[in-house]
Specification:
single chain; 192 residues
């Protein structure tokens, strides 16, 4: 990964958007810059960019971009183990996606809530969120997220020593994971 080059391109693009007074373009570039820092685990650099992007997006009525930044802040705080802040932002993102009927984004937020509660050792809440996300990811056809949710549920049930449930979710994980693998192979063959 050439993170420096990615940052250079995003900064150049942001300067062009600034010259054009295009706040929406600036917001997208800031989110992308922050994501490059996030990928490098440079959270102190990512968080201010996400925060500023969220504020600007809110001022100009770009709610979709605002909640992308808010969701990314939640994940950053989760990685920092600052769970109260992660929960604060993740709840906002989830509420927005529920209100707008964005089922794929809602499924992701629910899965992230499951991860957050699992990290907090609140396994009942984690399982409930993973279950909700699994149902939604199945209904939207997101096999990759369905596999992730089923895998997380298998681990949770194993830690709770309910081996039958763990086994059932492990089988489901394998089914979805095999489907994701098959889809990837089909795409690779089609690209030849």
């Amino acid at each position: 990964h050439d993170y420096e080059l990615a940052l250079q391109y995003q900064r150049q693009a942001r300067r062009l958007y600034e010259e054009e007074s295009d706040s929406a373009g600036m917001v997208k570039c800031m989110i992308n810059e922050a994501s490059v820092f996030y990928a490098q685990e440079q959270y102190a650099e990512a968080l201010p960019l996400y925060r500023i992007a969220s504020e600007i997006a809110g001022r100009i009525g770009k709610d979709h971009d605002r909640y992308i930044a808010i969701g990314d802040m939640a994940l950053t705080y989760m990685d920092l183990a600052v769970y109260d802040s992660a929960l604060f932002y993740l709840r906002q993102s989830l509420a927005y996606h529920l209100d707008t009927g964005n089922d794929p984004a809602t499924a992701i937020d629910l899965s992230n809530m499951g991860m957050l509660y699992a990290n907090m050792n609140r396994t009942d809440s984690a399982a409930a969120y993973f279950e909700q996300s699994l149902g939604l990811s199945e209904s939207t056809g997101d096999n990759r997220l369905s596999a992730k949710n089923a895998g997380e549920l298998a681990e949770l049930w194993e830690t709770r020593k309910n081996y039958q449930m763990a086994y059932n979710y492990q089988k489901l994980y394998k089914q979805y994971n095999d489907s994701v693998f098959s889809d990837s192979k089909a795409e690779a063959i089609a690209d030849m």
